[in-house]
Amino acid sequence: MVLKLIGFSKHVIFSFIKTIILLILNFILHKADSGCNNSVTTSLVQFPPNEVLISLQSQVLDGHLSLKDNEDAAKDFGNIHHFPPLAVLHPKSVSDISRTIKHVFEKGSDSELKIAARGHGHSLQGQSQAHEGLVIKMESLQGHEMKIHSGEFPYVDVSGGELWINILHETLKHGLAPKSWTDYLHLTVGGTLSNAGISGQAFKHGPQINNIFQLEVVTGKGEVVTCSENRNADLFHGVLGGLGQFGIITRARISLESAPKRVKWIRVLYSDFSLFTRDQEYLISLKDTFDYIEGFVIINRTGILNSWRLSFDPKDPLQASQFNSDGKTFYCLEMAKYFNPDEVEVVNQGVDHLLSQLSYIPPTLFLSEVSYVEFLDRVHVSEKKLRAQGLWEVHHPWLNLLIPRSEIHDFAEVVFGHILKDTSNGPILIYPVNQTRWNSKTSLVTPEEDVFYLVAFLSSAVPFSTGENSLEYILNQNKRILDFCSHAQLNVKQYLPHYSTQEEWQAHFGSQWGAFVERKRAYDPLALLAPGHKIFQKAMSTFI
Ligand SMILES: Cc1cc2nc3c(=O)[nH]c(=O)nc-3n(C[C@H](O)[C@H](O)[C@H](O)COP(=O)(O)OP(=O)(O)OC[C@H]3O[C@@H](n4cnc5c(N)ncnc54)[C@H](O)[C@@H]3O)c2cc1C
Ligand SMILES: *[C@@H]1O[C@H](CO)[C@@H](O)[C@H](O)[C@H]1NC(C)=O
Ligand SMILES: *[C@@H]1O[C@H](CO)[C@@H](O)[C@H](O)[C@H]1NC(C)=O
């Protein structure tokens, strides 16, 4: 019914909020002076290779060890921390990795040479860097054959350095695909499984770490261990969400489902936060619901409803002029329903029925239809546009929080109502998940309530800016948000956590800290791995 009113056209493509931001950034950038490089100063000092490195060089490898031109390994998407390593290993085999780690491990705790696996380097705060250490470039392992197994519980075996986008394309050849995703697919398996991998499917399937049957891991002692729920389960659970602390993921067996061909992609707006969250929570509680549920916040975006209207089919003009968005806050609920062409009638009825139960502002219903790949790879479209404008490799002071349902209203009132003036620095995602179906044995730290919200402040700092779009301003704003959470004693947890002291890490892990330390002692006793998180600065023998 609603669908018919909208005059649905499959040729309509979303005009993303991200595109709007891009235009704003573009506008600001054009006004700014150009011509100088704004990157944070990088130390390019050549360090003398230490003793371990010299002996490492005599190892026989399938790949190679590089001691020069390793500046890239000191970069990441956050573009805030830059710590150059002494060497980069480009492994061609798992034994390259195990041999190298074993060698460093056997040199003992005086070697001081830390080791970081680097996936696609899309960390935000130097997590894949190793200051004066050794970086293992996991993408060199790519290209190892992906093995797809169909049957009742289909899966694919992939390298830890494989990009999710490649896995999508390969599995689709067999009509299959992974179940749980991230919003952006140019990330490696090892990189997202070390965190969680959360997107709009996580309310249904859990995060990516919930959808793994088996891993092959090289521990901090250089041992190659295969692990799963039934075999070396402690290492398996430890590594999932384990921030790279217990081992390097060299292979993963990922659960698959049959892949849909098409996606109905829907956005609606709310001005009332309570109605917005009520509808989101209602949708995730249903058995028969959308396949993807997310949402985002739009604060004081001048003319948002006009640009909203432009993205509609011009044959079906939106009566949005009755709204004046300036100075106001809106909440966009974003939903997707997967389907195959032969099911279109049933799917339309199902979608109509779900939408008829929601309380959004009626003329803001925006519906589109795209292929499954177009839907999943949507952020890559924005990436290409931003890259073309030189706006991709800017500073990204992101902040990701997991907020218990009982506290989301207090949080929203202060943060969206008072701390943030607008959302011109980047999207703010907000959506709930019910973690009763999530595996609680992994290393991932979440709030204790069943239902919590992911709130992601995905800010970009504008180069050369000194005002409200500058890195300093945004970092300060993030700090104000975190300070508010701690003063109001909200039981918030950081996702993609970043702390600089062990006390803060201990507080982050809370009751899980003891188990985390025990696993470190068991699998990486010299604390060689993933030093960029700054969780363990010393070998476990000296750790109290
Ligand atoms: C544009 C963009 C969108 C994003 N969207 C989402 C999202 O929707 N949902 C979400 O959950 N996250 C999202 N992220 C965050 C992303 O999942 C993490 O930053 C992830 O770590 C990046 O993967 P990477 O391959 O670049 O890892 P890297 O940055 O290279 O590494 C991240 C960490 O994992 C460790 N590591 C890397 N490879 C391995 C391995 N094989 N074994 C063990 N440890 C390893 C590193 O040492 C480091 O500590 C997004 C990031 C970006 C830049
Ligand atoms: C979360 O999921 C569980 C199990 O499906 C369910 O019993 C519970 O009611 C859900 N909680 C909410 C608040 O939706
Ligand atoms: C909204 O933005 C406009 C222009 O960007 C600004 O003049 C106005 O003060 C802002 N309103 C609020 C409530 O912050």
Automatic annotation (TrEMBL):
Membrane spanning segments where?
A: 12-29
Q: Any idea which UniProt keywords this protein has?
A: FAD, Flavoprotein, Glycoprotein, Membrane, Oxidoreductase, Signal, Transmembrane, Transmembrane helix
Its recorded name reads cytokinin dehydrogenase
- Catalytic activity annotated for this protein? N(6)-dimethylallyladenine + A + H2O = 3-methyl-2-butenal + adenine + AH2
Query: What's a GO biological-process term for it?
Result: cytokinin metabolic process
The EC number on file is 1.5.99.12
**Alphabetized InterPro entries for the sequence:** Cytok_DH_C_sf, Cytokinin_DH_FAD/cytokin-bd, FAD-bd_PCMH, FAD-bd_PCMH-like_sf, FAD-bd_PCMH_sub1, FAD-bd_PCMH_sub2, FAD-linked_Oxase-like_C, FAD-linked_Oxidoreductases_BP
Which part of the chain is the FAD-binding PCMH-type domain? 81-259
Any Pfam family matching the protein: FAD_binding_4
* EC supergroup of this enzyme: oxidoreductase
Cofactor(s) this protein requires: FAD
* Family from the record: Belongs to the oxygen-dependent FAD-linked oxidoreductase family.
One annotated GO molecular function:
cytokinin dehydrogenase activity
Tell me the name of the encoding gene. LOC101493173
